[in-house]
Amino acid sequence: MTEKLTVCLVGPKKGGKSSLLASLVDCVAQSAFGYSPRLRPALQPISQAEFAAGPADLRRADFFAAEKGDYERLKQEFSDGGVATDTLNTYEYYFRLSVNGEAPPEVVTRGPWLLEIVDSAGEIAAPPDGAEVAILNDVKAKLARQMLEADALVLVLPLVRLDDSAWMGALARLIDRLALAREKKLKRLVVVFSQYERLFTRLGPSAFTYACDPAVALHVLRKSLRSAQWLSRLRALDAVGVSVRYTVCSAYGFVKRFQNPNMDPHQPGERRFRRAGLEGARVHSEYWRPFLTAEPILYAALGLDSAFTFSHAQIDALEEEIPATAILA
Ligand SMILES: Nc1nc2c(ncn2[C@@H]2O[C@H](COP(=O)(O)OP(=O)(O)OP(=O)(O)O)[C@@H](O)[C@H]2O)c(=O)[nH]1
Ligand SMILES: [Mg+2]
Q: Which domains does the chain carry?
């Protein structure tokens, strides 16, 4: 049976929500994730009409849909060098997800699942403290409703020192309200730290090797979460039956042939690598490799763990390990 699922992307402005979403389909297609290659997931953008119609009418609804879809537009904007981050609304995108390989026991069926992914603007759910951004009340109400009706939330946070971040208070309050809300459908919550490749910009061709090691990701997550005061609030959510996972991702990824981050630290504002004279599809295939952006969405939709999704129990294992290493140091 086809199941419909709603996933909401929330997090601060410029956290990387839209970029994660824009690179998601490529990440799944290129298997640039930590799931077994034998899983063979497939993700395809569909129209709202197809999502609404359900599986019986999918093909017919698709038939005359020659127009470029919203998702294609988002993807194009992203590969042209950016996505609009001063948006003040929520946007819905629709996908068909299926598992074509060996479905692990956690996934009872191979789908297809119809996904609605809601990309919200950071200013709505996690505005910086003291900010007076005029968000229309009906936009706030719309996102609140979408969050309460969502099967899963993906919290996208930029990999920076979290304590310095002015939006942390708003986010903590949001998690509190979620924990208290009785009518929510929420089953899963994924916290994803974006822009992961930035950590490796000095490592040259070794960068990809380090990034591919789940132990490195776990270490980074533990360090980032050590001082995060909202962690206890997420544990509270876990205690009331919402499965919480932590992961990392990079929408920019790594340069395929050279294995280094797809990011030039010598450019002002750390721009993506570009080679003069290369246009369109060739640029894409040489310099483009999203990394792990599939993880948050596949976990959110299916509850399926990869080598790069970590539970509270896995994150906590460090607290026992630290004293041992501290003694050695
Ligand atoms: N280095 C690096 N930068 C990234 C990555 N993903 C996104 N960015 C940059 O981070 C900035 C914000 O990304 P967005 O995806 O627009 O963030 P957002 O969360 O959708 O922001 P709002 O829609 O305003 O809430 C942009 O300048 C992106 O170019 C990444 O994987 N690596
Ligand atoms: Mg956005």
A: 3-328 (3.40.50.300)
- Out of 19, 264, 289, mutate this one to test ligand 1's pocket (max ligand atoms within 8 Å of CB): namely 19
**CA pair distance 264, 198, nearest whole angstrom:** 10
Cβ(184) – ligand 1 distance below 6 Å:
no
Asked, as a colleague might, if the bond just before 112 is cis with ω within 30 of 0, I would say yes
**DSSP result, 244-284:** EEEEE-BSSBB-TTT-SBS-BTTSTT-BPP--TT--HHHHH
Q: Which of the ligands is closest to the CA of residue 16?
A: 1
Question: How far does the centroid of ligand 1 lie from the alpha carbon of residue 26, in Å?
Answer: 17
83 lines ligand 1 (CB under 6 A): yes
pLDDT in tens, 139-197: 888 888 999 999 999 999 998 766 567 888 888 888 888 888 888 899 999 999 999 99
Query: What is the number of the ligand 1 atom nearest to the C-alpha of 272?
Result: 1
Distance 328 CA to ligand 2 centre (A): 44
> Residue 194: what are its φ and ψ, rounded to 5°?
-90, 175
Q: Is the CB of residue 89 below 6 angstroms from any atom belonging to ligand 1? A: no
Among residues 115, 85, 38, the alpha carbon closest in space to that of 194 is found at 85
Coil, strand or helix at 55: helix
Of the chain, the percentage scoring pLDDT greater than 90 comes to 49
How far lies 211's CA from each of 33, 139, 208, 249, 272, in Å?
Answer: 11, 38, 5, 10, 18
